Amino acid sequence: SLILMSMGNLYGDMGRWDKAIGHFKNSLLISEELNNLKRKASTLKGIGLACLFKGDTSTGYSYLNESIDICKKIKSLDVYAMALNNIGIYYDMLGRWKKAIEAYKESLSIAKKIKNIIVISNIMNNIGFAYSSLGESKHAIYYLKESVKIADKIGDIYNKGINYIHLGEEYLKKDEFKEVKYYISRAEKIFDELDDKLGLADIYRLKAKLLKKLKRWEDSEIFFKKAITIY
Question: In its keyword annotation, does this UniProt entry include Cytoplasm (predicted)?
């Protein structure tokens, strides 16, 4: 059951949602046979998230709620926090950002109780993105910076770089160009070291947007083209 669930997570990381769901469902059958409720809740959470990313949001939502019901019954706070975070992702996908923030904040309070620092960082990220979607830059910046602090503490360089890009985007909305340049340079250093082409493409796109606002049209075009060749 655990191996099948790990395989499901692996296929999920690769974006192969049907394969992920297949492995999760096989894991679910074994968890039910063994009456391992925590494993069942965790597997249902995995199926729910895979369904969301596959585009089957209503099915994903059903699986996540089933996971939450079990978590409440057996008081499995770690799985509960992650399932609630995924409910937030569901509302995010529907553009219901206030509902998403409610779910994320409930998830965050549980993750803080059990001191799950990795989950806390991910949730802070998600809250920041949701506030950004609502156009509430002040709140978005606060949560993104909190996520950066945790990413720094746990050595999560990749997510630190991603958050730097999003902070740059938020400051660009406010026309705070000095801050934008600061976060671009920090992010670029990280993605250069990681040799992450998609991360660099996001930076080039942000540079192009900044240069456009500064009316440096030709330079802006150069960076848009650099981003497009990678995308």
Answer: yes
